[in-house]
Amino acid sequence: MSKIRKGKVYLVGAGPGDPGLITVRGKYILERAQVVVYDYLANPKLLKYVPKEAKLIYAGKKGGVKHTHTQEEINQMLVDWAETGKTVVRLKGGDPFIFGRGGEEVEVLSDSGVDFEVVPGVTSATAAATYAGIPITHRDYTASVAFLTGHEDPTKPGSNINWAKLATGAGTLVVYMGIKNLPLIVKNLVDHGRAPQTPVAVVRWASTPEQRSVVGTLDTIVDIVREAGIKPPALIIVGEVVNLRKKIDWFEKRPLFGKRIVVTRTREQASELMAGLEENGGNCIEYSTIKIEPVDSYEVLDEELERLEEYHWILFTSLNGVKYFFERLYARGMDARSMKGPCVAAVGKATADLLLEYGVRADLLPDVFTGEGLAESLLDQGVQGRNVLIPRAEKAREILPETLRGAGAQVTVAPVYKNVAPVGKREQLREELESGKVDMVTFTSSSTVRNFLSMVDAENDSDLKRLMHEVTIAAIGPITAKTVTDTGLTVDIQPETYTIPDMVYAIVDYYSK
Ligand code: SAH
């Protein structure tokens, strides 16, 4: 039988949890994967790098819980997929060769004559230490570190770990998979001469927004962990270096750490706000309440594009207005040169910046970044008898065109995109609110408010108030805030200027108090 194309298996370390901690090589390989077999401990957020048409297989392997696939099945699966000629990525939490059974998987591949490559990852031990503010080695405290497993193969007779030598043999000890056996581990260490006062830290879900750490000594840690209800996955760090956490703890000290924030924006636009909040430790849950789509008909715009030189002003009131206007302009074989006649105004800084990317500098930027602000700035210039074009959303507030018409302008509104509220995810949002898991909801436009409400689907105002009772609300500007207060809810945070960086700043400021 002749083989088609030769497949290959890449064992890739996903890093400890923070998706930013995958290696550049690992990401490169994910971007070219045809099949991805991933683990419980590999952050599923990394799957966004995988091509859409690739096959994703969840291999499970949650400690204690029934494995989704046995190790033998996983090994066989890797061989089988590679033999169909595919580029297979085996994505494993942390580093594949540190307590990850990566060695066993590669042995099987080697035995089967399958090509493979291994990409190391940031192992959870170093990540947990770093993110808990514990330098794993330090010249003043320890010159050695040992990684051990606290969950030995139960089918193995006797212990593989030489506790007598390890207990005092290495300055810092990091124990993987040790939560269930913590009492036994502590006993082994103390019985073999490690001082009961030795500091110990236990770090759960290291480097993720759910990270939780507790600190004690060999004497006290068992009770502390039990009382705190710390469950796997967690690491145990033993040694004098743990004391440095008092000074160095940085990750859990960030202003938004542990806060669950619902970001309601369009998928295209959520990233800047999310990045800003996450940079400050926020745990963002993205609900793309709106999807932006082109309008069904560009009849109005097409006609106006033919006579652009007759216009005195083109007003851009949103990023999408800019984007879809230019897409249509280009589709008609035109470019920025067609816009040399009219003056151009942008509602805000971000819109003006985007215009510049399309080769057009805004002639006017209002002092206040709203439709009203823009109207006012234009009225100052005098609009009597002027031709004004507004490329914008199909459904939008009429205040800007109406104000300008009232002042004697000839206004044409050209719809260039529409907001569509997607279905799905509804139950999830509702459930998160019901169970009090949400700390904050952010709104960056009135339509995000309206779509959020339609997703929450409250029975009435008091039901909505009940669901939002403990939730802090941030609104980007006065119009968005008014849409919120019109529903009977209260806005807690509103930045002075209506930009995403200022919104992030206002939220950080709120929680820093
Ligand atoms: N190959 C992985 C380890 C897999 S063994 C690595 O290099 O990190 C599974 C154990 O790793 C868990 O029981 C836990 O002890 C530890 N672990 C993995 N990710 C972790 C995380 N984000 N926080 C704390 N412990 C983690």
Topology:
Layout: E1 8-13, H1 24-30, E2 35-39, E3 55-60, H2 71-83, E4 87-92, H3 102-111, E5 115-119, H4 124-131, E6 145-149, H5 163-169, E7 172-176, H6 182-191, E8 199-204, E9 212-217, H7 221-228, E10 234-238, H8 245-248, E11 260-266, H9 270-279, E12 283-294, H10 299-305, E13 313-316, H11 319-331, E14 343-346, H12 349-357, H13 371-381, E15 387-393, H14 399-406, E16 410-420, H15 426-434, E17 440-443, H16 446-456, H17 461-467, E18 472-475, H18 478-485, H19 500-512
Parallel strand pairs: 1-4, 1-5, 2-3, 2-4, 6-7, 11-12, 11-17, 13-14, 13-15, 15-16, 17-18
Antiparallel strand pairs: 7-10, 8-9, 8-10, 12-16
Helix pairs in contact: 2-3, 5-6, 9-19, 13-14, 16-18
Number of DSSP strands?
Answer: 18
Q: Which architecture of the largest domain would the CATH scheme give at its second level?
A: 3-Layer(aba) Sandwich
The top-level CATH class of the largest domain is Alpha Beta
**Sheet having the most strands:** 8 strands, mixed
Approximately what portion of the residues adopt beta-strand conformation? Answer: 15-25%
Low-confidence stretches: none
Helices, by number, come to 19
Hetero groups bound? S-adenosyl-L-homocysteine
Tell me the distance between the termini. 71 Å
Structural class: alpha/beta
Residue-averaged pLDDT, rounded? 91
Cα Rg: 29 Å
Characterization of this structure:
By secondary structure, the chain is an alpha/beta fold. The strands form 3 sheets. An 8-stranded mixed β-sheet has the order 14-13-15-16-12-11-17-18. Helix 5 (163-169) packs across helix 6, helix 9 runs parallel beside helix 19 (500-512) and helix 13 (371-381) runs parallel beside helix 14 (399-406). Helix 11 links the parallel strand 13 (313-316) and strand 14 (343-346). It has 4 domains: 8-120, 3-Layer(aba) Sandwich (Cobalt-precorrin-4 Transmethylase, domain 1), CATH 3.40.1010; 126-248, Tetrapyrrole methylase, C-terminal domain (Methyltransferase, Cobalt-precorrin-4 Transmethylase, Domain 2, 2-Layer Sandwich), CATH 3.30.950; 260-290 and 422-512, Rossmann fold; 293-420, Rossmann fold (3-Layer(aba) Sandwich), CATH 3.40.50.10090. The model has no long low-confidence stretch (mean pLDDT 91). It is built from 19 helices and 18 strands. The protein binds S-adenosyl-L-homocysteine (SAH). The site of S-adenosyl-L-homocysteine has 25 residues, from helix 4, strand 8 and strand 10. Pathway: Porphyrin-containing compound metabolism; siroheme biosynthesis; precorrin-2 from uroporphyrinogen III: step 1/1. Its EC number is 2.1.1.107.
